[in-house]
Design goal:
single chain; globular; 2 strands
Amino acid sequence: MHSLGEQLQGGRNGEDGVGEHGYTSPTEFSAPANNTIAADLNIGGSNAKNRNYRNNNLGNLVFANQEGATLESPNAKGEQRFARFNTPEEGIRALANQVSSYYNGTSAAAGYQKLQTVSSIISKWAPPN
């Protein structure tokens, strides 16, 4: 890899793996066909001990018509509140989208405020009881 100084002085584009505009081309990834998080947790399985595992929703996102989500099945108390995703990866993607929308001020749940500190995001995500 060339030093930054050599690149700035006319290094040849692409010889260090960096594209013309200073970034590498994105690579397409597909979700794995099998549970890649931990088979013994029964994530996504109806017998999982934890609700967030049954729902593939590790962030315990409340159902709000997120892309790819459905309302969870009723729990033992008959409650339905959280989003259910088809795979753990979809749930993690939704979690990342939620944090991004808090940060960017595009979340109705946060009143479209920009929450740009860890403390403000956590306070909105998991308010004190």
